[in-house]
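Hello forum,

I keep getting stuck at the same step: I have a sequence, I want structure tokens, and every attempt I make locally crashes halfway through. Rather than fight my setup again tonight, could one of you with a working pipeline run this one for me? It's a single chain of 923 residues.
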Amino acid sequence: MSLDSFAAHGSLDADGTSYSLHRLDALPDSQRLPYSLKVLLENLLRHEDGRTVTADQIEALAGWDPAAEPATEVQFTPARVLMQDFTGVPCIVDLVAMREAMAALGGDPALIDARRPVELVIDHSVIADHFGVPEAFGRNVELEYRRNRERYQFLRWGQTALRNLRVVPPGTGICHQVNLEHLARVVFAEDGTAFPDTLVGTDSHTPMVNGLGVLGWGVGGIEAEAAMLGRPVSMLIPKVIGVRLTGALPEGSTATDLVLTIAERLRQHGVVGSFVEFYGPGVAEVPLANRATIGNMSPEYGATCAIFPIDAETLSYLRLTGRPPGQVELVEAYAKEQGLWHDPRHTPDYSQTLEVDLSAIVPSIAGPKRPQDRIALADASRVLRAVLDGDVTCDAAPVGLDQSGAESFPASDPVAVTGSHPGDQPGCLDATGPGKTRPPEHVSVTLEDGSSFEIGHGTVVIAAITSCTNTSNPQVMVAAALLAKNAVERGLRSKPWVKTSLAPGSRIVMDYFQRAGLIPYLDTLGFDLVGYGCTTCIGNSGPLIPAVSQAVAKADLTVASVLSGNRNFEGRIHPETQLNYLASPPLVVAYALAGSMAVDLTRDPLGTGTDGQPVHLRDIWPTQDEIQQVISTSLRPSMFTDGYADLFTGDEQWRALPTPEGDLFTWDPASTYVRKPPYFEDMPRRPRPPDDITGARVLALLGDSVTTDHISPAGAIKRDSPAGEYLQAHGIAPGDFNSYGSRRGNHEVMIRGTFANIRLRNLLAPGTEGGYTRHLPDGEQTTIYQAAMRYAAEDVPLLVIAGNEYGSGSSRDWAAKGTALLGVRAVLAESFERIHRSNLIGMGVLPLQFAPGDSARSLGLTGEEQYTIHGLAELHDEVTVEAEGAGGTTRFTARVRLDTPTEADYYRHGGILPYALRALLPL
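Reply #2:
Ran it on my machine without issues. Output:
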């Protein structure tokens, strides 16, 4: 129950039902606020308790200064949590381990459950191994179950044992599209109270649901666990950038062209860490599906969210997708009552504004390595030639936002960057340089059926209709299918060297394709269904056509992928494609027909028709009226109500998975995917008072800008790494290692990969790359994992010392979990990225900050000293650090970065999980 310091309690009647609500107009100045901050303000009013959420926070938000830099911290309590399987499994593992700890301490294990609704969608594990044949979908799902059986058994148990956890089984859809089409409430009605639907998600593209007016964004696993347990997520009141929309999209331009243009514009403007909000007369001209596409790509331009307010289009989409009439009426009544309904004549206060004229949008692609590097379709072939000839280059290593996005691969961890970097700007294609000239080399390829052809630089070897970014949008999906129909009827076919695939974000897509009679044309071009999941967009593109792969490797060809996804960093889509282009679904089909990025789709023919005449893209591109006619006759609300009626039931393979029964999970000691974490071992009922850290050794001495990618395990597991050796010792062949992302539920794998990134430079072990340190005092060089285990056996606490911006990059829970499990008690840095600092506290690791002007270098610290930290029992603002080395003892003060009372509580308890567990123990 809220303290209600501002007398905000009120009532609302909708659909014959009376609801209580927290009125925004109780704060007179609130109507000037942007839509997103109004939603946040209501959240604070509803959760005011005088300690975690205070009247001062509410007044600070109501009195928001648009020109101010973010500095005021508030506590946001989301209504629900959305997860995908890679990032969600470790969160559920922790919750299950809490249950066992509760039982061990004499409590009721059933009390350990998510306090808020949690919806986990399995979408990150299907791989497009099979393609271009009718049975591709079934074969790929079978392989998916075989590879991920242990993880799926665990989630299947969780689905039945945890009351507030709902699991969407494999082969169903992508979390963001399922969220948009079915899960999102827009307005919650709970215990007689109406309030805005809000969420956090363990995936960077959670803001897709912003298109519905639902405030939410991606967070790391520890923040998600806090939200699951009913705890707030700490945040700074952000800047809000207003984007005024005018005009309407012209014929031939798509939502993809629009979002690539917006990504380019907002990168140029600089919106990293800000909220973005759309307003103005053009909002009404943007269909809901287009809004969702724009929100989906907010990580690519660095915004925390990219939200549209509620309006008549919102209600139309809710009706289209089969939401109950009473729910739609509640959304409308609540939005109008609270001033959340869009008024195109009203301009809220914004930190900054810019304008986008929809009528100026032209067909575009983005690439070859960054999503913000938009290329007008008319310029694409010219730019390709310049790239191949070395006249322009995009070879610089990613920095800033690009680095964070690249590091999120393949698990789609949310980015955690709080400021813009010069390298975030679009336009690497404008740079000039000598480069090296690539000859127009062509290589002959012969397939198993005896057919042969030639490929060369710029050849398209992957054409994938994939990713919720675009497959949630009927306009572009129908456009792709109609283009395929027109192409087939003219006698065109995809080039035989192109791996084609179709992976929609929900089954509804195939339903309206089937009703419209369009599936045979897609199949004819090789765009058979390969799965309902992320596939190519997160690198699950599967192998290339074998003969093509061999030719690419032998001739060192620079070849391309074209996909309807959201990220295209080198190495993300496929290790053999150096050029990767984002494009609308119809352009994906067009490039499959053309077979090369060197073809100018605006001028050159795609091929020759059965009548012997050249066929151009303009000849087969469907008109907007044709697209709308198919949508009007083929898309029905019943498709959504029927398609989602058994959303959580799963197919026969899912239901047949053998799973344990009961409130406690039966851990399989042989499992290498899911293991019981040690967070609660020997945990007392009451926390021990914090004590000084004495005799500590430095595990890693690091420089500036160490990112969570340096710290947290990611990507492939190497055969000779500690994690690889562990898996082989447990009978896992290297070919079955899978990725760190898929094994996040096994702490034994993850701690062996912590600090193991090859780009990490530990100054304590000069001349080494990634994952090495020296054990002290003997000085033996060994892996960080092995050294940490030796120190643990010797009962020696550990420190990490670092420079500026420690923990930037993507928001990874294992960057903090791995640090804690290695025995690190404190991290001493010149500055911290805010989210990683919070995550360290959530795992019971103390963040300490050098005094201004101090650093390891200025103090002469080598990392070989023994460290004692005095004053932790009181947890004052500062502590005294003593570093005892061969040359004597160095004393200095450090700032304790426990910035709120809640953070201090978490630290005293050893982290957020013990804190939440003890709060539920009987007195």
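Residues 207 and 448 are 45 Å apart (CA to CA). If your local run keeps crashing, start a new thread with the error log.
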